[in-house]
Structures are given as C-alpha cells and as structure tokens.
C-alpha cells in the first residue's frame, strides 16, 4: 500500500518549488488552479484557486422570475442537472406550501437516480483515467450515453434539462420511457460487476488509492464535507434517509459507507467504492419506483404564476456530490430578494489541503479525483 514518503532533512537539502497545476490541466476536472509548493516530489502546501468559471448565478437570480431560474440551476452542476432542478423546486414548494402529486414524486425519484448513476459514471471513469486506466472510462461513458438517450427521449435534452418545475415536471413520461428504463436496468446490472473486475479490484488501482488521502470523520464534518466523500469516511449521513423527501420514504435502499476494505477508512479507494455501491442502490430504487409509480396529472400543482409569500426558506437536497442547499428570501413579488446556493463541491474541495499535504504529486491527482468536484457548481 502507498505510504507518505519520509525525507530526512539532515541527509538532503532541497529548495521549495512552486508549481501551478491548472487551470488548463486534464486532471483538475475543470478550470481549477492548484498552486502547489513542493519539496522535490512531495507536496508541502496546496492553495486551491477558483473563480475561472464564475457566472454570477446568485446575483443573476435577483433579476429573474422564479420560474426563469430553473434553467440556470442546470448550469451549476452540469453533470447532474436534474438534481439542481429538483433541489430548487423543493425549496420553492416548501416556501409556497405546494404539495405535488404522488406521480410527480415518483418521476422525480426515477430521473434523479438515473442522474446519480450518470454522474457517478463520469466521476469513476475520470478517476480511473487520472490514474492511467483508459478502458474503464470508455466503458462508463458508453453506459452514461444510454442514460442520456433516456433523458433526450424524456425532455429533448442530453445535458441541461429544465425538466423538474416548481409544482411538478414539464411533461409526463413518454409512452416507452418505462419500458426503456427497465431495459437499461437489466443491461446495466451485470455491467457493474464488469467494472469491479476491470478497475475496482485491479491490483495497480488498489495500490494507487488504498491508504492514500485518508479523510478522518471529524475532519470531514468540520470542513462541511457531504455526500459520498463524507460517507467514504464511515459517516452514515444521507438526506434521502435522514431528512427524507419525495418518494424516498416509500422505497427500500441502503446507505453505503467506507469500511477500510482495502486500506484505511476514508481513503481514496473507500470514496470510490461508496460511489460504486451507490449505483447499485440507485438501480434498486429505480426498479421499485417503476413498479409502483401511480397515475395522475403531473402538472396539477404547477402554479400559473410563481409568486411566493413574504418570508424565507432554506432547503437541502442530496445530489451526486453531496448536500446542495438553497436559501431564498421573498418579499412577495415574482423575483427573489436573495438566492444563495450552498455548493457541496466547494466544501469538499476545501479539505484537499488538509488531506493531500505530505503526499507526492501523483497522489495529489488521485486525492483530487476521489473528491469528485464540478467547477460550474463551485464557481456558480
């Protein structure tokens, strides 16, 4: 297993070197710049520098009608746009006291878990690519395309959807959507076993990730780390269970956590493994939801005008990267006074200097990849 390199300063004298990794670097997963202070190959200090993808999302929302904001949430976490839509819709429905039809809740869960699988496939495929495994990336992107085909059939878009609206969804499921989704589930279930054979239990992959970048549970909590990165440290916290919403209380699924199976609890391998297990749980959830989805009008609760009463709300949602939060202040007009988004990827990135300093540059690549960041959400 990998261990932190030890340098006896009495035997060798080196000068500190400052390197810029990014913002145009394939392993920083977007326009992220890491200012790295190195002692030879060992990283002594890391300064994450963000802001290269800033779109002023929060300020922009102060000049948009509530219903016009939905497409802009898509652009934040563009790898999991359905989750951005859903989280915002939940916040607005809580502020307005809207109760959506049961069919809408099931549709949201189905597309949300499909989106979770699609997002994790990107995260795990690129993580393997960072470490030098090319084939898993091509396989996982291939299977993600099958989910994007379903979304294209659902709402006409493959990346930015504007599908989940305040009070409902833009339109009902297409005629063949349920059958095609079942076919995908049947196809994808054995594929996960192949991913394990190809990458998860690959000796080289384990040596590059096990016991590397260990994130202790208390450090994760203190930094506000959420999602698979937190659960990889053994903390069983998932908003779908702990603050259940939509149809999740009616469905059975487990919350995977890191156990140190290949090394130490909270290492890079555990964070990877939790995402692999979550895809299996998403398949379980989708299968149950497809079998029990009720009938109903998906736009019955969609308001003609989205004009919430005076007040404020904070609502959180479990995305593929962790806890997204929307804080909205209303003065009774059709435009928010203030809209603030809590970015899970921002908090997850903030812990990198805590867990990556003292490791080699090659290990830093693995640690960053295991956190699964999206810069569109961080720089919102």
H/E series, N to C?
EEEHHHHHEEHHHHHHEEEHHHH
Number of domains: 1
- Strand order, biggest sheet? 1-2-3
Q: Rg, please?
A: 21 Å
| The CATH H-level homologous superfamily | Cytochrome-c3 Hydrogenase, chain B
Average pLDDT level: 92
Portion of residues within helices: 40-55%
Predict the CATH topology.
Answer: Cytochrome-c3 Hydrogenase, chain B
What general form does the structure show?
globular
- Portion of residues in beta strands equals 5-15%
Our count of helices gives: 15
The poorly predicted ranges are none
Structural class: alpha+beta
Amino-to-carboxy terminus distance: 38 Å
Query: How many β-strands, per DSSP?
Result: 8
CATH class: Mainly Alpha
The biggest sheet amounts to:
3 strands, antiparallel
**CATH architectural label:** Orthogonal Bundle
Features:
single chain, 380 residues, alpha+beta, Cytochrome-c3 Hydrogenase, chain B, three-stranded antiparallel β-sheet, 15 helices, 47% helix, 12% strand, globular
Q: What report would you give on this structure?
A:
By secondary structure, this protein is α+β, with helices and mostly antiparallel strands. It has a single domain (53-351), classed as Cytochrome-c3 Hydrogenase, chain B (Orthogonal Bundle), CATH 1.10.645. The chain has 15 helices and 8 strands. It has helices at residues 57-61, 66-74, 81-96, 102-131, 134-155, 177-200, 203-209, 217-222, 228-231, 239-242, 268-292, 344-350, 352-356, 361-371, 375-378; strands spanning 17-21, 33-39, 42-49, 164-165, 168-169, 311-318, 323-330, 338-342. The strands form 3 sheets. It has a 3-stranded antiparallel β-sheet. Strands 6-7-8 form a 3-stranded antiparallel β-sheet. A two-stranded antiparallel sheet has the order 4-5. 46% of the residues are buried. The model has no long low-confidence stretch (mean pLDDT 92).
